Every structure is written in C-alpha cells, then in structure tokens.
Amino acid sequence: MPDVLADLAPLADECAREARLYLTAVTEIAAGSASDSAIPLSLLALSQALAMGARLGAMEDIVPTDRFEADSGPDPELNPLRVGIANVFEGLDEYADLEDPLTSGEVTTGSLSNDLTLVADGLSHGLAHYDAGRTVEALWWWQFSYLSFWGERAASALRVLQSLLAHIRLDADEEIVSEAEFDALHP
Hints:
Layout: H1 2-30, H2 38-58, H3 79-88, E1 94-100, E2 104-111, H4 112-131, H5 135-170, H6 174-185
Antiparallel strand pairs: 1-2
C-alpha cells in the first residue's frame, strides 16, 4: 500500500489545494466582499472544483485501505455560507433545472446557494480526512461525493452562472457598448 499512497500523494495535495481555493472563494462571496464580481468568481471557483472532480471521476475507483469511513470530526456549520450566498444572489438564486436529463424530463427548481454550499460540504469533508493524514480516504471521498452528489449540482450551477454572465455581458444596450468600444480604441 505504501506505493499506492506515494503515487496518489501529489494528486491528493493538488485536490486539497483546489478544495481550499474553492472554500476560500465561496466564503468571500458569501461575505459580500466581492459582490460586483460574485458571478464570475463563482463561475471560476466552480469550474476549478469541477475540473478536480472530473479528474477524479475519470480515474479508476479509489478504494480506502479500511472498508469504513473514519470519523472526520464534526461537520462544519454551512448554513451561514448558504444564507450569505443566497443574499448575494438575491433575485437570481433559483433556476429551472431537470430532475435527471437521462431518465426524466421533469422540470424542477435549483438554487445557486444550495448548489455552491453542497459543493463546499463535499470538499470540506474530504479536507477533514486529508488534514488528518488520511490521503487515500480524502481522495476516495472527493471521488465518491463528486460522482454521487456535488458534481451534478456543480454542473447545473455552472451552467446557470455561465448563462447569467453571458446575459450580463451580451445583453447590454448597443449604444453603450459602441461608445465603450470607441473609448477603448481612441484613448
């Protein structure tokens, strides 16, 4: 098992770094410290988390040494994070979503604040294992949780954030855009 651990250690370090970056970004967004850039920052943070998850999802299943999940300690209280994100995205938080695009065409609703918080929950749980020195357990958790819950919610939220950003940037008044382009080209 030491060879497997040595092979996976760089990947675990990179995943832990990505998880911490995501958690830092959504915490700052929820605090309102980046309200003008909350949408693009959320898009970027979520994209990076999804890239991490996709990398783990594409790998063969990571199986922890023990056949049970060690207690990672108390779960962090994430409701303040969810509420903070909901406040920042007030009026934009809820969106139309599909229950399951493969098995059901049923339209349901999603919530950016719930989705971003669910991703934070999955990543922070894995970080608790990583910080306790259980590298394989952390990778297993990130892989499992990406495939079982947060990956799907992150992908839905990513689509909504990209759509919001596109509307903000592309639905601008043509006269204002033209003036801005002229000003940029003729300083």
